[in-house]
Amino acid sequence: MKHHLHLLLFLALSMVSCAQSLPDVLKKYNDDTVAYIQVMELDTTGPIVLLDARELEEFQVSHIKNAIYVGYTDFDIKSTQEKIPDPNTPLVVYCSIGVRSEDIAEQLINAGYTNVKNLYGGIFEWKNQGRPVVDQTQKQTEKVHAFSKYWGRFLTNAKKVYANKSNTHAQ
Questions:
Q1: Under a CB-based contact definition with an 8 Å cutoff, are residues 39 and 129 in contact?
Q2: Does the structure show a pLDDT above 70 at 83?
Q3: Residue 79 predicted with pLDDT over 70
Q4: What percent of the chain has pLDDT over 90?
């Protein structure tokens, strides 16, 4: 139920504009139930499995190389357990900025995974720091799905893509 409430909140906020910083937004909408990991910490963490908790449309525009798509609205814990059977596998979940990924990380922890972190700032922070992303053909791209104008303001170092089934455009 919380999963759907967060999605509704996320969508509602997408239509509202206010001048909050990323730390303010994360503090306001996350419960701090999952430890954050900073982008630069991934360089020294050792082997991890990255899980992309965005919608498929967002993942197809771009994602962090080698990330496994698990989705948000269509997240299925059983499918994830089949892909990653060892509950001690180090997992880092990300979404656009880190709100949806906390929900998915909570579900993973509740399912028995013991080493789960939430990527602070998500793929936006990853790209803002000049890190590469790849498209669905595994080619490097500068495009990142920005979800909406509200959330897209946190993405400063990429070609923003806003897409839905009826229209697609880049900024």
A1: yes
A2: yes
A3: yes
A4: 78
Q: Do residues 93 and 101 make contact, with C-beta atoms less than 8 angstroms apart?
A: yes
Q: Are 94 and 53 in contact (CB under 8 A)?
A: yes
pTM of the prediction?
0.85
Which residue blocks in 51-170 are alpha helix, DSSP H?
56-61, 77-83, 100-110, 122-128, 149-152
Query: Three-state secondary structure along 28-74?
Result: HHCCCCCCEECHHHHHCCCCCEEEECCCHHHHHHCECCCCEECCCCC
Closest listed residue to residue 117, CA positions, set 46, 14, 62: 46
How many Å apart are CA 105 and CA 17, to the nearest integer? Answer: 27
Domain 2-14+22-170, what fold? Oxidized Rhodanese; domain 1 (3.40.250)
Rounded Cα distance, 129 and 132, in Å: 9
pLDDT computed for residue 171 by the predictor:
44
pLDDT at 140 over 90: yes
Q: Which of 104, 129, 7 is nearest to 49 (CA)?
A: 104
Q: Taking the domains of the chain in order of start, what are their residue ranges?
A: 2-14+22-170
